[in-house]
Design goal:
Order of helices and strands: HHEHEHEEHEHHEHHE
Strand content: 15-25%
CATH superfamily: Vaccinia Virus protein VP39
Structural class: alpha/beta
Shape: globular
Number of helices: 9
Number of strands: 7
CATH architecture: 3-Layer(aba) Sandwich
CATH class: Alpha Beta
Radius of gyration: 18 Å
Distance between the termini: 24 Å
Oligomer: single chain
Number of domains: 1
Largest sheet: 7 strands, mixed
Length: 251
C-alpha cells in the first residue's frame, strides 16, 4: 500500500511496548518440519521495532531487519543492540536493497498485508536462495473471547480506516496464489495481559488509531477505560489472539 509506512510515524515507542510477541512454536515448526536451521540468514521484511526479529536472533540466526520507517528502524536498533548477528537497513518488500540470492528465508510479521504482492513476489525470488522459504505471520484477535470482542468493537467503531488485524483482507486464494498453491498453515493461541495504560497504548500503536485532536478521541478513551474496569482482574485485562503462520517456498 503506497505511503503505508507513514501511518506508523510517531507510534514507534507504543508499538515496541504494547504489541504482542509471537509464540515460540513458530520456531519449532520451522526447525522440525522445514529445511530451516540456526545457520541460515533471515530477512525480516516490515520488521517494525524488531519484535519478530528478536525471536530469530535468539535462535542464533543472522537476521537482516528491513523497514521503510526511519523511526521504527531507530527503535529496532536500540531494542536489538545486544545482538551481533543483526543488520538493520531501510527498504521495502518491493525494493529490499539486498543482493541477489543472499537470504535463506523471508519473514513478515504483521506486515504482508501492506505489500504490493506482485512486486514483492518478484523481489523475494530475487533475494532468496535455498531453501527459498517465506514465513507469513499474524497475531489475529480471537473474537470468541468476550473482552477481545469488546475491544475489537471499540476499535472498529472509533478508528479511521480500520482494517482488522491485517490478515482480515488477505484471502486464502491470495495466499495460495502467492505461494503457487503449495504452503503449510499452522495456528497457535497467544495472549497479552495489559494494565489500563497498556490497553490504551495497544490501541494507539495501530495505524488506524484516533489522534488526541480528533473529535471522538476523548469519548473513545473513556469507553476503553470503562471496558477495562468492567473486565479487569487484579488490574489487568487479557486480549487473546490466534497466531497464524503460513510457510511456503518461492522458486
Amino acid at each position: 500500500m503506497e505511503n503505508s509506512d507513514k501511518l506508523f510515524t510517531g507510534k514507534g515507542d507504543l508499538y515496541s511496548k504494547y504489541r504482542p510477541t509471537y509464540p515460540k512454536e513458530i520456531l519449532q515448526i520451522l526447525n522440525n518440519k522445514y529445511p530451516f536451521n540456526p545457520s541460515m540468514t533471515v530477512a525480516d521484511i516490515g520488521c517494525g521495532t524488531g519484535i519478530l526479529s528478536r525471536m530469530f536472533l535468539e535462535n542464533q540466526n543472522k537476521v537482516i531487519c528491513i523497514d521503510p520507517n526511519d523511526e521504527m528502524l531507530q527503535i529496532c536498533r536500540n531494542q536489538l543492540s545486544e545482538y551481533k548477528n543483526v543488520t538493520i537497513m531501510k527498504g521495502t518488500a518491493e525494493s529490499t536493497g539486498l543482493q541477489d540470492h543472499s537470504v535463506h528465508m523471508i519473514s513478515a510479521g504483521q506486515s504482508f498485508h501492506w505489500f504490493n504482492l506482485e512486486k514483492a513476489g518478484r523481489e523475494f525470488r530475487r533475494i532468496l536462495k535455498s531453501p527459498n522459504l517465506v514465513a507469513l505471520i499474524w497475531n489475529d484477535r480471537d473474537n470468541k473471547d468476550i473482552f477481545t470482542a469488546e475491544y475489537e468493537s471499540i476499535a472498529a467503531k472509533y478508528s479511521k480506516g480500520y482494517h482488522g488485524t491485517g490478515s482480515t483482507n488477505i484471502s486464502d486464494d491470495l495466499i495460495s496464489q502467492f505461494f503457487n498453491w503449495s504452503y503449510g498453515y499452522y495456528q497457535y493461541p497467544n495472549l497479552q495481559e495489559l494494565d489500563m495504560e497498556g490497553l490504551i497504548g495497544r490501541y494507539l500503536s495501530t495505524s488506524y488509531s484516533l489522534k488526541p485532536q480528533d473529535d471522538k478521541y476523548e469519548e473513545m478513551i473513556s469507553i476503553l477505560k470503562d471496558e477495562f474496569n468492567t473486565y479487569q482482574k487484579e488490574g489487568k485485562v487479557t486480549i487473546r489472539y490466534t497466531t497464524k503462520l503460513y510457510v511456503g517456498k518461492l522458486l
